[in-house]
Write a structure and sequence with these properties.
Helix content is 9%, strand content 34%.
Length: 286
């Protein structure tokens, strides 16, 4: 299935299943309602063309993400170049889902304390069942589907603060809070269920800014696979239906090029088989 959410004629958001050029309108409900394994009940069919999309899910309990999960991205960031045999663990952080998630076509706001806003296209995994203490060999059974996430990131949070006394862990927390800005997690356009994605570890992944290709890679270059990541996270916390795990970004980000996003820029992310996620940058309205 290809699951999306769209704005109906009365302005309310409906859940839909895309069937080619048509949408089966399931009404005002959550995609989590489809995660019990039962086929969706029927509904009226409407044309897909011209629909205004919302994010395919907004009521996700947790929005988790991986840092440094592509070696070339680690290198371009100036971090330690680890040998493939190095015994390392995933680096997991979160973005606040209720305020960070943005819709396809939505405006990504630049706030007054943004200094260097960057892009990061990522394959996002949507969890479909409650999962705790699972082994990697069985972890893919917890996956409901996949979508695209752009982990918009502020690279120089607090860098313009004058007279600041820099404490030991301030750089880490500046990096972390730079991930939390409102609207800085565009998501979509659809959730594509696992049966339509034969190998999520072999998908072309690319991003362009104003038509110029910036990122062009493949998910096979991830350091930690999807089941390894799920098993690691589920050893600490319980994953729930609707949780999202963004699996990291490949090389080609703006900070490595000295390029930051500015008002008017159009960012277009694409993952093979999952569609296109396009957003525009603009100053936040007061």
């Amino acid at each position: 299935m290809r699951i999306l959410r769209f704005f109906s004629d009365d302005g309310s958001v409906h859940l839909g299943v895309r069937d080619g050029g048509q949408i089966i309108d399931l009404g005002a409900c959550s995609p989590i309602s489809l995660m019990d394994g039962k086929p969706p009940s029927g509904g009226p069919r409407i044309p897909y063309a011209g629909l205004r999309l919302d994010a395919p899910i907004r009521d996700c309990p947790k929005l988790l993400a991986l840092a440094g999960n592509y070696r070339e991205h680690v290198r371009e960031a100036g971090m330690e170049d680890l040998a493939p045999s190095a015994n390392i663990t995933p680096q997991v952080f979160w973005k606040p889902p209720t305020t960070a998630i943005n819709r396809p076509g939505g405006v990504v706001p630049i706030r007054p304390n943004n200094v260097f806003v960057d892009w990061e296209i990522e394959l996002a995994v949507v969890i479909g069942r409650r999962t705790k203490n699972v082994q990697a060999e069985a972890a893919m059974e917890s996956v409901f589907g996949y979508t695209i996430l752009n982990d918009i990131s502020e690279r120089k949070f607090n860098a313009s603060m004058e007279g600041r006394h820099l404490r030991q862990f301030d750089p880490f927390f500046d990096w972390l809070m730079g991930k939390w800005f409102d609207g800085h997690a565009p998501l979509g356009p659809e959730i594509v269920t696992v049966d339509e994605v034969p190998d999520p570890h072999n998908l072309g992944i690319r991003l362009s800014v104003n038509g110029e290709l910036m990122q062009d890679s493949n998910t096979r270059h991830m350091i930690f696979s999807i089941p390894e990541t799920i098993a690691y996270i589920a050893s600490v916390l319980t994953l729930e239906p609707g949780d999202i795990i963004a699996t990291g970004t490949p090389h080609g980000v703006g900070s490595a090029r000295g390029i930051f996003l500015k008002p008017g820029d159009v960012i277009r992310g694409e993952i093979e088989g999952l569609g296109i996620l396009e957003n525009v940058i603009a100053l936040e309205e007061s």
